[in-house]
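Morning run. Coffee first, then this:
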Amino acid sequence: YDAVAFTGDATLARGTETGPAIELVEAVRHQGPVLFVPGNHDDSAVGPALVSAGATDLSVAKRISVGGPKGVTFLAVSEIGRVPQASGTVVVLEHVPLSSEQLRAAGAQGVDAVLSGHTHGGNMRLPLLGALIAPPIGDSADWTLLPERKGLHVGGLKKVSGVWVHISRGLGVGQKANLPEWLYFRFGVRAEMTEVLVVPSGR
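And here it is:
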């Protein structure tokens, strides 16, 4: 692989153990750059811990290029208005999936794809109904019950407003403050680490 991207929530909750995420970074760092953007579950200690293990905090570095001029440039969401004029592919990493307006702006600036997380695939999926619940994402400012029935994209690859968007269902579970801990589990949502293959147009 050319790079590994963590799209946030490296820990289950703020103040919890960073060991598993550090072990994962240490296991893959020797084969290519490891990029990280913080999630809402990550406190201020997570970024420095992953950087010490060999990752690059893209929210600090802002942009990283791999594969030369025609390779891939990874950007923090804050850099959407400053997309480099290059012939390669531009990918934004941002924990919370972007809104339609943000995606249209990103596409107009030359962004090809956005990699996000945050949703945990809805934590639970029910036959015919899809994802049970989703946190605030994209055009939704609050938690949404049965988000896919309401047109929200909560997992996988989809082209939205002209930009390819991949939302990783991740490895952990989402949490909502007023829900009991016994509801923190996944059902019908397979944990995943996704391989994304970027192919230049015309090939």
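The chain has four helices and 13 strands. Good start to the day.
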